[in-house]
Specification:
Elements: E1 18-20, E2 25-26, E3 33-34, E4 37-39, E5 47-51, E6 57-60, E7 75-77, E8 84-86, H1 89-92, H2 96-104, H3 106-116, H4 128-142, H5 151-172, H6 178-201, H7 222-237, H8 243-261, H9 273-291
Antiparallel strand pairs: 1-4, 2-3, 5-6, 7-8
Helix pairs in contact: 3-4, 4-5, 5-6, 6-7, 7-8, 7-9, 8-9
């Protein structure tokens, strides 16, 4: 006669990637509090891989934790009104005009994001799709925020990170056009990085209060990184309908990089990976302009 075992079957626990903070986050828009999820970083969870030309740190999958996406924990999103920001801005943003505009746009924001990242959930431990949805909510949220909070540079970083996350989504769930969506966010990033520099130099919007320019979470490349990324994204994703305008911008970008990073005829240099990436971009811009017979005034 068969005798069933009384021993409780062992269930393998899924390795934890995050935890819920003891301190809740209070949304300044709807005044509701929600749980704050933070990533655990020790025990071999983050195995740093290559640094791409877009200053994106790729993390290698580990045997225990698999593939991780540290980026998705840098944004918070309120489950009640779907306002989303970098965590610090939940405490910083407090002017009535911004908050009222965010509240009025709540349902519209939710609907737009749900169309692109369906079935996202803001209440459980986030996955890649939830993280991408939170970034898109943040992109739309900062659209309603006053310029005193430097929303343009934040939208630039968010757009670039969204492009990276959508590339990751294409690998995980192929066939849902996330590769195309990634290209759209790259072009948005290019627009916002350029607009950041226009606003800063024109004294329309200062970025002095921004502590970290990213663009990724592992290192802050500062204002030099903004100049570099503006040039790189123009080179890779800028418009090609008006080639005369394109070559003009590429030439301006080449000269900006030469001045900032001491390239070309200058003997000055700045240490670190940003210099190496800048030299490579400078060479590519030079080659492209030479092919078009465009001679820089600095040559």
């Amino acid at each position: 006669m068969y005798k069933s075992s009384t021993k409780k079957p062992t269930v393998e626990k899924k390795p934890k990637l995050s935890y819920w903070s003891k301190t809740k986050c209070k949304c300044p828009v709807c005044m509701k509090s929600f749980d704050k999820e933070e990533m655990l970083s020790g025990s071999g969870r983050m195995i740093a891989g290559e640094l791409t030309d877009e200053l994106h740190r790729v993390f290698e999958p580990s045997k225990k934790y698999g593939t991780i996406y540290p980026l998705i924990y840098a944004i918070g999103a309120c489950p009640k009104c779907h306002s989303a920001f970098f965590w610090k801005d939940f405490e910083e943003i407090n002017d009535n005009e911004s908050l009222n505009a965010l509240q009025a746009d709540s349902e519209n924001r939710k609907s737009i994001v749900n169309n692109l990242f369906p079935y996202y959930d803001l209440t459980h431990e986030r996955n890649l799709l939830d993280g991408a949805a939170m970034y898109y909510l943040a992109l739309l949220s900062y659209e309603k925020v006053d310029l005193s909070y430097a929303p343009t540079i934040k939208r630039a970083m968010i757009s670039l990170r969204l492009a990276w996350l959508c590339k990751d989504l294409e690998k995980v769930v192929p066939g849902h056009n996330y590769s195309y969506v990634s290209e759209v966010f790259y072009r948005k990033a290019q627009f916002f990085y350029e607009q950041t520099l226009i606003n800063e130099t024109g004294r329309i919007e200062t970025i002095a209060k921004v502590n970290n320019f990213g663009p990724d979470i592992d290192k802050n490349y500062g204002y030099d990184g903004v100049i570099y990324l503006n040039s790189l994204l123009e080179f890779k994703y800028g418009q090609t309908e008006d080639m005369q305008m394109r070559y003009k911008k590429l030439d301006e970008n080449k000269r900006s990089i030469a001045r900032i990073f001491g390239l070309g005829k200058s003997s000055k240099s700045k240490p670190g990976p940003l210099l190496e990436k800048s030299r490579d971009l400078y060479d590519k811009l030079t080659a492209t302009l030479n092919e078009a017979n465009i001679i820089s005034v600095d040559d």
